[in-house]
Q: What sequence folds into this?
C-alpha cells in the first residue's frame, strides 16, 4: 500500500480535486447533493457513513467556498437542509472526469479480466462491510433496548 505522503491515491485525489476547489471527501458530499438535491445534514451523515462533527466541518468549508448553502428545514426546525449553489454546478462535470481519471490510474495495468475480478472482489468486500455494519447497528439497538440485568456477586 502506498502512503498518502509518498504520492499515494489520497494525494493524487487531492491534487486533482484542488483543480476545482475541493478537497478529498468534499466531492462525495457534492455528488450526493448534485444527484439527490438538497438534503438534511443528518441524511448526508447517514448516506456517507460519516459522523456529525466531520459533516459539520465539511459543510462549513463547502459553504465558505461558495459550493453549498445551509437553510433551516421547512419541515423540522431542528434540522438544517444543505443545498448546492449555482456556483457548485460548474465543477460537477470536472468532478466526474476526476473520478474517471482516478479509476483509469488505478486500473491502468490490469487486463479486462483483472478489472472484472477487481470489481467482483470489491463488491464482495462492500457486501461484507454492509452486513457487518447492519450487525453492529442491531447489536447497538439491542443494547439500548435490553432491560438491565441485576447481577449479584457472592
A:
Amino acid at each position: 500500500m502506498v502512503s498518502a505522503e509518498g504520492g499515494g491515491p489520497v494525494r493524487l485525489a487531492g491534487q486533482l480535486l484542488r483543480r476545482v476547489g475541493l478537497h478529498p471527501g468534499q466531492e462525495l458530499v457534492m455528488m450526493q447533493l448534485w444527484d439527490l438535491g438538497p438534503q438534511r445534514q443528518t441524511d448526508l451523515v447517514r448516506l456517507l457513513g460519516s459522523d456529525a462533527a466531520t459533516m459539520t466541518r465539511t459543510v462549513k468549508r463547502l459553504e465558505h467556498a461558495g459550493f453549498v448553502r445551509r437553510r433551516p428545514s421547512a419541515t423540522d426546525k431542528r434540522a438544517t437542509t444543505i443545498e448546492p449553489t449555482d456556483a457548485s454546478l460548474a465543477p460537477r462535470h470536472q468532478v466526474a472526469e476526476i473520478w474517471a481519471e482516478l479509476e483509469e490510474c488505478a486500473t491502468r495495468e490490469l487486463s479486462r479480466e483483472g478489472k472484472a475480478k477487481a470489481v467482483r472482489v470489491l463488491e464482495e468486500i462492500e457486501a461484507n462491510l454492509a452486513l457487518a455494519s447492519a450487525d453492529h447497528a442491531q447489536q447497538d439497538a439491542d443494547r439500548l433496548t435490553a432491560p438491565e440485568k441485576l447481577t449479584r456477586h457472592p
User: Anything to note?
Assistant: Residues 112-145 form the longest helix (34 residues). Residues 1-5 have pLDDT under 50 and may be disordered. Strands lie at 39-40, 68-72, 80-84. The two ends are 53 Å apart (CA to CA).
